[in-house]
């Protein structure tokens, strides 16, 4: 059965007990993303400490509605990037994107960088679910760009 | 005897008429794709015909035969192949017309139901600058267009856009708690300002079949046009346009055993006669000069460009195949499947049906939620077992908003589905509950 490969225990744990969930103040950037094929939604806020790429991600808070994969991904992501600089966090995001676009091929992801997010490797074999795993990451990139004043 | 078999035996005993109405399971053999095994050897259980149906060999053969022996552009040229292609294309139109009780001149080929509905919406825009014969299609500020909250996006967005372009106002019927159309404000909603009422003939999510006769009578009493989105009705129930008392009806070929890329817009001939075109170009013209062009009568006026000939021929054969089975029998078969699935699903703790809980005025879309498990995850477990359902909002997002749910899992049935398919669905839902630990 393929299911266990996709729904790793780590994913189910984060789904049942999501970390950093709920919208909090203060925040400098907010983004609302939807997955139009299934209706999953996330509203995500970023609170930065400092300026530009060197700023520290002081908080990521979110309100999300969706499947186990999208919920767990938001939880794992916030764990991973809070406390990192924007530049470091973007690098983690890029590595995660590479993993998700691997279609299950062996891409040797950086396990030290991805930590719990490595559990999503099985999801990359299901093209229909990749968007679920990426939803929060895309919202975070967007919210951060807004916080840095790159877009409005 | 397994639990599923025991359930089936109990249902058959309780519903001898329903069981007797089922089509023979051998029908499945006409569909090459349904012989597949998937996801590690599971026999394929295809419960997504509401999205698109599978195709019988006869339809596939008809398309192949056209390309191998008769391929040419119809209604152009005078060589033998062009004659044969034209004849095959027009014979398909005649078969399809017969299937819904229409005359061939009232059958306009489109890409799908979506394009058929857009054709009317854009013809109504274009009426603003057309001649006096198009008067009754004109829409502007102060006019109203009526739809419902249970429409597929295909019968909602084109009307939102028509209203945006013309300044008309969009209004809609709501949905009752049990998934029926809320008709309480019918006389107020459909009034002398209403230009067109565009409704689903069978909801693709709830399965609901609205009382079209009642609504059409009111619409016509105030001089409004009536369009039916028949994408989910023509494939599944007998439809005779001469008895429906509506003005337009749109459906897609691929949902009724036909190929993709072919759909039908049926319209009452006096309306099609008076209606300006949507897409213009070759083969819809009468006389072309640099200063301007006159158009062919319908249906050619609405079929610009080389048409989807092989697809039309495939759809013609699909209609003949369905007519041979008999649409009454198709409908009775599906009604039995719906009844059985409602019973099998509602006996599972935590499963809620979104839509009418009985088979009355209801077609074969059974949408449901499972407490504590997102539909995407339900669908993933089912897929792992070879059971293919649809998950999401099914292109009818306002229905989810109406019921305050993010999405649903939806099973839809067709002639090739069996009671065993529904057992596999119900067993899969229980498997999902065990996997996610909600029971």
TrEMBL record, chain A:
It comes from the Bacteria. GO terms for molecular function: iron ion binding; iron-sulfur cluster binding. InterPro entries: NIF_FeS_clus_asmbl_NifU_N (IPR002871). Signal peptide: none annotated. Residues 6-132 form the NIF system FeS cluster assembly NifU N-terminal domain. One of its GO terms (biological process) is iron-sulfur cluster assembly. This is SUF system NifU family Fe-S cluster assembly protein. It comes from Actinomadura syzygii.
Automatic annotation (TrEMBL), chain B:
Its EC number is 2.8.1.7. InterPro entries: Aminotrans_V_dom, Aminotrans_V_PyrdxlP_BS, Cys_dSase_SufS, PyrdxlP-dep_Trfase, PyrdxlP-dep_Trfase_major, PyrdxlP-dep_Trfase_small. One of its GO terms (molecular function) is pyridoxal phosphate binding. GO terms for biological process: cysteine metabolic process. Its cofactor is pyridoxal 5'-phosphate. It is an enzyme of class 2 (transferase). SUPFAM superfamilies: PLP-dependent transferases. Belongs to the class-V pyridoxal-phosphate-dependent aminotransferase family. Csd subfamily. Catalyzes the removal of elemental sulfur and selenium atoms from L-cysteine, L-cystine, L-selenocysteine, and L-selenocystine to produce L-alanine. PANTHER family: CYSTEINE DESULFURASE, CYSTEINE DESULFURASE 1, CHLOROPLASTIC. This is Cysteine desulfurase. It comes from Actinomadura syzygii.
């Amino acid at each position: 059965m393929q299911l266990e490969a996709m729904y790793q225990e780590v994913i189910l744990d984060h789904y049942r007990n999501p970390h950093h969930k709920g919208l909090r103040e203060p925040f400098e950037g907010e983004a609302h993303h939807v997955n139009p094929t299934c209706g999953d939604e996330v509203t995500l806020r970023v609170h930065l400490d400092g300026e530009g790429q060197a700023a520290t991600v002081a908080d990521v808070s979110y309100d999300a509605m969706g499947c186990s994969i999208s919920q767990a991904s938001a939880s794992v992501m916030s764990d991973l990037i809070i406390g990192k600089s924007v530049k470091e966090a973007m690098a983690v995001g890029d590595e995660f994107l590479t993993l998700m676009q691997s279609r299950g091929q062996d891409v040797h992801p950086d396990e030290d960088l991805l930590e719990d997010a490595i559990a999503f490797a099985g999801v990359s074999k299901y093209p229909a679910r990749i968007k679920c795993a990426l939803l929060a990451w895309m919202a975070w990139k967007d919210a951060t760009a807004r916080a840095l004043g790159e877009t409005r | 005897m397994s639990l599923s078999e025991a359930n089936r035996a109990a249902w058959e005993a309780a519903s001898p008429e329903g069981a007797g109405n089922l089509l023979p399971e051998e029908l499945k053999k006409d569909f090459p794709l349904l012989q597949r095994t998937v996801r590690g050897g599971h026999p394929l259980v295809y419960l997504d015909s509401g999205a698109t149906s599978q195709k019988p060999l006869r339809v596939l053969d008809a398309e192949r035969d056209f390309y191998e022996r008769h391929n040419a552009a119809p209604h152009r040229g005078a060589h033998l192949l062009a004659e044969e292609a034209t004849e095959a294309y027009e014979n398909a139109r005649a078969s399809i017309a017969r299937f819904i009780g229409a005359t061939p001149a009232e059958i306009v080929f489109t890409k799908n139901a979506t394009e058929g509905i857009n054709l009317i919406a854009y013809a109504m825009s274009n009426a603003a600058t057309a001649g006096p014969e198009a008067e009754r299609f004109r829409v502007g500020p102060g006019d109203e267009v009526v739809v419902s909250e249970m429409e597929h996006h295909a019968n909602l967005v084109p009307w939102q856009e028509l209203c945006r372009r013309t300044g008309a106002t969009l209004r809609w019927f709501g949905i009752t708690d049990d998934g029926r159309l809320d008709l309480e404000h019918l006389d107020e909603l459909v009034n002398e300002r209403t230009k067109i009422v565009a409704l689903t003939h069978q909801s693709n999510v709830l399965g609901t079949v609205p009382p079209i006769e009642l609504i059409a009578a009111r619409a016509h009493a105030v001089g409004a046009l009536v369009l039916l989105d028949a994408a989910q009705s023509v494939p599944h129930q007998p439809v005779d346009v001469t008895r429906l008392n509506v003005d337009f009806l749109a459906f897609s070929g691929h949902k009724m055993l036909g190929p993709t890329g072919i759909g039908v817009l049926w319209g009452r001939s006096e309306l099609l006669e008076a209606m300006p075109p949507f897409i213009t170009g070759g083969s819809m013209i009468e006389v072309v000069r640099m200063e301007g062009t006159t158009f062919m009568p319908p249906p050619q006026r609405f079929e610009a460009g080389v048409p989807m000939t092989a697809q039309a021929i495939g759809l013609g054969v699909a209609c003949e195949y369905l007519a041979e089975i008999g649409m009454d029998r198709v409908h009775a078969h599906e009604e039995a499947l719906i009844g059985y699935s409602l019973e099998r699903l509602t006996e599972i703790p935590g499963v809620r049906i979104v839509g009418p809980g009985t088979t009355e005025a209801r077609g074969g879309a059974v949408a449901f939620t499972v407490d504590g498990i997102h539909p995407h995850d339900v669908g993933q477990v089912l897929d792992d077992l070879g059971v293919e359902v649809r998950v999401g909002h099914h292109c009818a997002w306002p229905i989810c908003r109406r019921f305050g749910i993010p999405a649903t899992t939806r099973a839809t049935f067709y002639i090739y589905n069996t009671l065993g398919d529904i057992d596999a669905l119900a067993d899969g839902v229980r498997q999902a509950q065990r996997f996610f630990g909600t029971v």
